[in-house]
Amino acid sequence: MSLFFMQIKEAWLSILRGRLRSFLTVLGVVIGIASVFTILTLSAGVTSTVNRELGRLGSGVLQLTVSPAAGNVSFTDLDILALRNASPSVKSIVPVQNVTGYYSAAGRSGVAMVLGTNAEYFDSFGLSLDQGQLFTDANVRNGDLVAVVDKMAIQQGVLPANIVGKRLQVNVSGSTFSLRVVGVVRSGVSIGGGNGSAARAGIDERNIPITVYVPYTALKNAGVATEITSLAVLLTSQEEVESFGQLAVSLLNSIHHVRGGFQATSLVSALDAVNNILNVISLVLSVIAGISLVVGGIGVMNIMLVSVTERTREIGIRKALGARRRDILIQFLTEALILTLSGGVIGVALGWGLSSAASKAASIPMLVTWQNLLLSVSFALLVGVFFGIYPAYRASLLHPVEALRYE
């Protein structure tokens, strides 16, 4: 063990004797490791962000719709009950009806996207209450003409801040009905500034559609939508979406005595496709960055070959004093490893700084993992072994007599 540490000390002293040359040698390794580390860190952050956003949008949600070729088929309350009992993985089932019309409230008017659903919708899709209250199961059973609006419409100045308790007149396909606004929800999505910035920016507020949530039975009472056009099934686990989709389609076809009458879609397949694309992009960029590592490795090999030539007489003296081929091999290989490992550590530190700067500039989360750190350092060691083994082997083959005669 003492011999090994002595060889490390000798290798380190040899590197220090040519500080500038050693620094220029490892510069390619530093750049390569920094590039690879930055790419791995930022790609991990981007992948995490995409997964989180798609998850928030409903990657664990199964969308059931009626097939266009099914004919006069629609969802019923019995379908909802059957699907609830089909699997313990079902967390909630919400009917979804989408109709578009026009609204007027507090002297303002514009386009309204009316979404008919039940009381479970808000909790299922993460909409939190901001003002007032949400409509209840009792409102759904009675078909009460009540509504909940999105806070984004208030932030954009489209609806007044005191909209709760006021009436919202809605016209859909010529049918007009009045809704009492009972609450305001935050969806977590905003495409405009707060406090009416859209209006101040000169955007015609009538062109900004508002989202209005109502009991789906209210649309039926108003004579607007009499059929449930789709169901959103929220499951306890994202991994069960695909299997439950097949079960749900088979069950619905059996209940309605049709073949191919229903379809199941989800964001799981889209999430997998996006992850695969991101992984491929990260791999390609890492390979491109790895080219600079190869260039740096060639530089290490070149300087080690020069070092062998310069120290030929020293090698001859060592062999004459009893040094074995293995001792010479280990000494020069140790020098190569110290060079590349130093470059790897500096490269990781540089990559950390670059990742932090890029993360702040592009608003991308910086996700540093032990795997990325170990992979970066392993790359540096691999370069040292691969490009250092030949010069070390060549030094070990020198004949002591010929080495002593070398000038």
Protein architecture, described:
It is built from 14 helices and 10 strands. The chain has 407 residues and is α+β, with helices and mostly antiparallel strands. The protein has a 6-stranded mixed β-barrel. A hairpin with a 2-residue loop joins strand 2 and strand 3 (108-117). Helix 10 (268-310) runs parallel beside helix 13. The model is unreliable at 189-205 (pLDDT under 50).
Element order: H for helix, E for strand: HHEHEEHEHEHEEHEHEHEHHHHH
Question: Average pLDDT, to the nearest integer?
Answer: 79
Structural class, please? alpha+beta
Question: Which residues form runs of ≥5 with pLDDT under 50?
Answer: 189-205
Major sheet, described briefly?
6 strands, mixed, barrel
Number of helices: 14
Radius of gyration: 34 Å
Helix content: 55-70%
